[in-house]
Structures are given as structure tokens and as C-alpha cells.
Design brief:
By secondary structure, the protein is mostly helical. The protein has a domain of 35 residues. Helix content is 81%, strand content 0%. The relative contact order is 0.07.
Length: 203
């Protein structure tokens, strides 16, 4: 069984599981991550918002499929009627995001998720500032730059899109190097431990 798996099993038994898992990943990979506490009231609210976002998109996809089927039989809503229904459904989620971020203005994952939602509904103008706020809050998060690149590209800002992709590549490279260095440090530690054991046996 790998050291990481053993550590995860131990972390599952810890009193403060998010902190235990975060420390384990840092020790194992060299990467510093923050594991949200699922019992935190803000985290619970955010997860509920994510569920509402997913539910709305699943529901809209269902409406579209059903309306296409009705249309093939001569019925169904007109495009204008369907678009109005879809907009109304997504506006409820938009309001949830806006209310959440008014109360938690520095919630980085909230801004990132809202930006992603806005891109999903093709509102790239409003998505861009949300993603830029996420970049301001968590400049080390690769997902921020991948989403920003898409938003910039869709708005025709090709130079900014390329800059975001360059930043993304640099972050990915830095993380790969951190993981490699952490792995090398562990191997060196194991080797050193073996030499010490061997010396003791020879003695």
C-alpha cells in the first residue's frame, strides 16, 4: 500500500480531516493545498449553490430535448418562448451567485464558479470580471487561467488569452517541478535511512 494511501486512511480517522489531508498532500507531493471544511457554514452554502447550478443546467438540457421532440410532432415552444423560459431559470441561479458573493466578496471559488456558470450560458462579458477577481484572490490556481483564456478568446481579446495560457503553462510547470523535488527528497531520505541502518548492522 502506498504512503499516500496509508496517509489518507489515517487522515480519515483524524479529528480535523481537512487539515490532516491538506498536510498529507503537502508532505507527499510538495504542493500546498487547502481542503475546505464541509462543516463550515459558508462551505455548506457554497456547496448548495453548486448543486443548484448543476440542477438548473440539467433541467434546461431536459427542456431542450423535450421541446425538440415536441417540435418534431408539430408542437412545442417557439424559440423565443424557450429562450425566455431558459433565461428565467438561469436568472434564479445568477441571483443566488450574486447574493452569495455580496456576503462573501473574497470567496475565490465562488467567483471562479460564477465565472464558469456565466460562460456556460454564453455571458462572456460578465464572466470576465468574475474570473479576474478569482485571479486576484488565487493567482496560483490553474483553473483560473484556463477559464480566463476561454473568456478572453470568446470576446476577441486574443493577446490577453495568450497571456493567460502562458501563465497557465508556467503554473503547471512549477507544480510538476515541486512534485518532482518532493519525490526526490523522499527518495533521498529513504536512501539515507538505509545507509544508516546498514552502518549500524556492520558495526
Amino acid at each position: 500500500m502506498s504512503d499516500l494511501l496509508i496517509g489518507l486512511l489515517s487522515a480519515a480517522l483524524a479529528t480535523n480531516q481537512p487539515a490532516a489531508v491538506s498536510n498529507l498532500v503537502t508532505q507527499t507531493t510538495g504542493l500546498s493545498i487547502t481542503i475546505p471544511d464541509p462543516n463550515d457554514p459558508v462551505e455548506k452554502e457554497f456547496q448548495k449553490l453548486m448543486e443548484d447550478d448543476d440542477a438548473a443546467q440539467v433541467e434546461v438540457e431536459k427542456w431542450i430535448r423535450e421541446n425538440l421532440a415536441f417540435g418534431q410532432k408539430g408542437g412545442g415552444l417557439t424559440p423565443a418562448e424557450m429562450n425566455g423560459r431558459i433565461d428565467a431559470r438561469f436568472n434564479t441561479v445568477r441571483k443566488e451567485y450574486e447574493d452569495f458573493l455580496k456576503r462573501h466578496a473574497d470567496h475565490a471559488r465562488g467567483h471562479l464558479a460564477y465565472g464558469g456558470f456565466l460562460m456556460d450560458i454564453h455571458d462572456f462579458d460578465d464572466a470576465e470580471p468574475e474570473l479576474e477577481k478569482a485571479r486576484e484572490l488565487v493567482p496560483e490556481k490553474p483553473a483560473v487561467y484556463s477559464n480566463l483564456a476561454k473568456a478572453y478568446q470568446r470576446r476577441g481579446n486574443l493577446e490577453e488569452a495568450q497571456e493567460a495560457l502562458t501563465a497557465l503553462a508556467a503554473l503547471n510547470q512549477a507544480q510538476a517541478e515541486e512534485i518532482g523535488e518532493a519525490s526526490g527528497d523522499r527518495k533521498a531520505g529513504y536512501a539515507g535511512h538505509g545507509v544508516e541502518q546498514g552502518a549500524a548492522v556492520d558495526h
